[in-house]
Description:
The protein has helices at residues 3-15, 42-53, 76-84, 99-106, 143-146, 161-173, 186-195, 206-211, 214-217, 241-244, 248-258, 275-289, 292-300, 310-321, 325-335, and strands at residues 30-36, 63-68, 92-96, 120-124, 130-135, 151-154, 177-180, 200-201, 221-227, 266-269, 308-309. With 338 residues, it is of the alpha/beta class. The protein has two domains: 29-128 and 263-322, Bordetella uptake gene, domain 1 (D-Maltodextrin-Binding Protein, domain 2, 3-Layer(aba) Sandwich); 130-259, D-Maltodextrin-Binding Protein, domain 2 (3-Layer(aba) Sandwich), CATH 3.40.190. Helix 6 (161-173) links the parallel strand 6 and strand 7 (177-180). Helix 11 packs across helix 15. The termini are far apart. The relative contact order is 0.18. Residues 11-18 have low confidence and may be disordered.
Amino acid sequence: MSKRLSFLLGVAAMAFAAPVAAEDFYAGKSISVLVGAGAGGSYDVYARTLANHMPRFIPGQPGMVVKIAGGVGGGVATAVQMEHSVAKDGLTIGIVQQTNVTSQITEADVKGRYDVTKWHWIGNMAPLRNMLGVWRNAPSQTLEEAKKVETIIGATGRNSPTYTVPATLNQLLGTKYKIVLGYNGTADLNLAMERGEIHGRGANWISVVISAPQYIENKSFKVLVVDGLTRDPTLPDVPTLLELAQGEKEKAAVRLISASGQFARAFFVPPGTPSERVAILRKAFDATMTDKAFLQEAVKLKMEIEPTDGATLDRIAREIINSPPDVIDLAKELLGSP
């Protein structure tokens, strides 16, 4: 056989060689976890804890680096970036504020910018009940008092639970919460409360438990309402938005708003990510959720862990987006959406 023929046969063999096996893809690489919330908050804590353990369950044991994108605007910019800008190779995982799911159908400035039904959900570490609470010297200390006096509430953006909870209360009960936008996460909101710049804030209760336990110890922060399908077990005397709703249609609309809590600590990769890599990440996530070392760290950090698998999140996202038009319209009205 001539050297030229041998060379050509070698080239042909290389052309038809099997691609790198899916399980070998992550070897020697690093995965970025893009967090659409501020540094120091519970989203940050959950993402970093996952990054500490999940790589052990990914073939090739890649690195995993958390990158804080910030929470101004409720993390919408991160949702848009994940869908349209990052490489669809399974090397960038996103986590955005849970209201980004419902905002797709309730907020005019969000509609069409991304589609959560096309995201590949990896899994949710825990569902979440948001809340609204006020500082110890706020002019109103109850929901009834808030109907009579203006109370300033800080929020990161219209597409964040820091906005949606007080906005819904204004519509449901006629409270006079003045919502000030533009804060960058719960750490920023906490500082604003302590300085007297605002009278209260929303977001999730776990953000207080993890990042500001002193508020509980010195009773400087009072929770008035919880946004969840059920009451928070640690706040048994605090009512839910759903309990405050009147009539079946109103309850259905509030239920739609509250359903976003199922995506509270949910991670995803963008549309177009190869299915075999999605499967690898889902399997690794599920294994992490039952890992002893991971659960020990979660207990130490006072993190709630109640996982939901990616396939279930896919289904719930479709159910939310395909809600009846009249229910969506009322939810928009409650949120004060244009």
